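Field: sequence (string)
Field: structure_tokens (string)

Example rows 1 and 2, in order.
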Amino acid sequence: MKRVVVGLSGGVDSSVAAYLLKAQGYDVIAIFMINWHDKTGTLEGDCPWKDDLVFAELVARKLDIPFHSADLSKEYKKRVVDYMFHEYEEGRTPNPDVLCNREIKFDEFFKVAEKYKADYVATGHYCRKETLEKGGNNYYRLLAGLDPNKEQSYFLCQLNQEQLSKILFPIGDLPKERVREIASEQNMPTADKKDSQGICFIGKVDLPTFLQQRLEPKKGQVIEIPKRFAGYLDFDPANTDPGYLSRPWEYQPEDGIIIGTHNGAHYYTIGQRKGLNIGGKKEPLFIIGTDTRRNIIYTGEGKSHPGLYRKGLAIRSADVHWVRPDLQLETGESKKFSIRIRYRQPLQQGALHATDKSMYIIFDKPQRGITPGQFAAWYEGDEVIGSGEIE
């Protein structure tokens, strides 16, 4: 009998994942991860993980499976939270959920599972895995979940073949409604429990308050850039060089007018609308650029402002990750893919261009809110082929 360790989170998805695995004949062990103790900046509850721990234990008791907890908070702080603070300080916007899966759930948690001699690790993610035999080797395909409203393959876009070989996704081919139904049919304590939201393992936070733990507030200028900024007017759409098309817009203070102040450029991100508290405009203001060195925020009026849109993006070659290494592009190669630059974004069409220093992604249509520090993931059909952190 194969043994599987399930990351039981205290939510309905992992509860049903554990139930299905036991029904399929696996020897199931449940482990609850404790990854965050600090409640600074959290918006809900004094200590939400303690409530989740109670639910997880109740589910394990209901399923009659062994239950344990593992405190990974030191690793989480070092490998996810410290990285987050550093990225925000540099004016970038990290994705903690992608990092949490790569660094904690499918790395540090694997080490815990090994102590229980597990053959597999399972989670309640809405994605799927298939095994493909090619050239005498097995390759593990990371596929989108079948429920389009819950599909989570983007969050797993940094996983590698070794990790995928040991992972099971029991609910990936089910719609959320069916998962809820199964939980109700089995009288699960989590059947009606709301889904968790916010930062992975931390929950919903007021981001400036959370970041103020390490990044001090400091007054700076808010500068509005006109829609007829010279940089937009000088842009040459006939220039098809990927390096040219992927360049971010660059602004200087003299390019616009001062319209207010802010409390720290590191608290803001490109595409953000809320939090400026500057009125008197016909249309909403959006963040179109940040300069943490000079502590300046650049804004544009209206959701159609050209500063919000770019034709392409760049990923340093060292930051390019291939989930399917057998499909890796060689230097000088180009290929069409479907691409996603944020969770829940519909897949966009574009091409990857591999060079020795960078991977350039050029979209068929300009994309809104391309943000340094976020991850771009590329797909063939419903399979995640690779990903990388946007430069």
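Row 2 begins here:
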Amino acid sequence: MKVVFVYFDFMKGAGGKYYEGIASISAVLKQSNHITKLFHITDFMDCEQFLDIYARRYADFDIAAFSATTNAFYYTAGYAQEIKKRFAAVITVCGGTHPTLYPDEAIGAEGIDIICIGEGEYPMAELCSRLEAGGDITDIANLWVKRDGKIFRNPVRPLIADLDSLPMPDRKIFDYESSADKRMRRLVFMSSRGCPFNCAHCCNHALKKAGPDSGPYVRFKSAGRMISEMQLCLGQYEGIEHIIFHDDILNLKRGWFAEFASQYKKEIDLPYACNSRFDLLDEKAVELLRESGCMQLNLGLESGDDFIRRTVLNRNQSAEQIVKAGNLCRQKDIKLYIFTMVGIPHEDKRKALNTVKLTARLRPDIVQTSVYYPYAQTALYDECREKGYLTGRRLDSYFEADTVLNLPDFSKDEIQFAYRNFKVFVSYYVTAQKLGGPLGGVLAKVIDFMWLHRRIYLLLEPVYRSLKKLYKRLFGKQKSENRSRKTENKK
């Protein structure tokens, strides 16, 4: 069989990155001698452009397999429908988080023949084998199949317990030379699947419910398997300067991570970035991360307000714990990449300001701010639905300065202001902290006032920018000359 994976990857923050899910499914299909290609959509194209490329490159393929997040499903449904109109014989399959979380909506889309719930490696392999043999495809576990006006809703099979049993991911299906990963001179890896925590805004706890409770949800490849996978890739790609791990929490299992870190330092020894949690970062954990080559930790603060973070989001981390972990990382020269959100249910502009202030206390190297987006089957989505916060609007990604909620205490304009000005206000508070003393305290009060009275800030902000430019023109040249003199004197 010939399978083309269709992957929409043009949303903000994407831009053509490696995706392990597609690479792993492709590797399993190729084991059975099926042919796979990737239609990787890294820049927005309308449906006519999409169909033109599809017709030229993939018209003879048997299956069009879409991988869809909730934000991308709008495009999946529409473009799949147009494929079916022009290429009636093609079978359209949709997998990914959206059909897993919204199966009825996904299978109800006119252009979708089959959806895959949960892991797709073996359901897709079974589908291809049966189609090739002319067999019945309506009873394959994990698949919902639409045929002759009926929907065959099959149960979900157990999760793949032994990740080492999977073949090496098929990275060659991606065009690395034109990817964002190539531009950043990096390779991306995943050593695990799943997260044990139940944050109310995250779809992980909803994804757990999608399959049978027959084994561990969190699974790791062995340390040896990961090292072998990385050595293979480093032998295939040149100019790699650092590694990115996309695991939800790389150092979740201390024993596994200690073994992996030791082997990584000996066999790979490249700087890397990974995801973790503040409550998993004590002195020993941070030391092990740094010794093994960790240059950056990606950490979800999400909210700096204790009530929002602990009660609404179910992230049981204290402000003191968060700041202590951040300090440990800075002491070890590990960069902090902090994830934050605004527009969360129960939030208002004062609670959002608490997030700005706690972020400033961390003094992160990078801040990523998003607007909260409710995903089906999550605890917070259910609350939004019950309280009537949902508006029915949709967005291409949660990095847009907009909200799909109607919150009683946090207006759309206030949320947009918080999103657009989050980073600059963090920088203001960092300046106040550095000043310290009475002057720093006064400055912090002024910053508070500006955030809480955004209209005044928006009026004064152009004046501030103009004064800043004038200051640079007047004193920037002098500072540059002073630096040059100091350099000459040292020589």
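free_text_note (row 2): Residues 155 and 242 are 41 Å apart (CA to CA).
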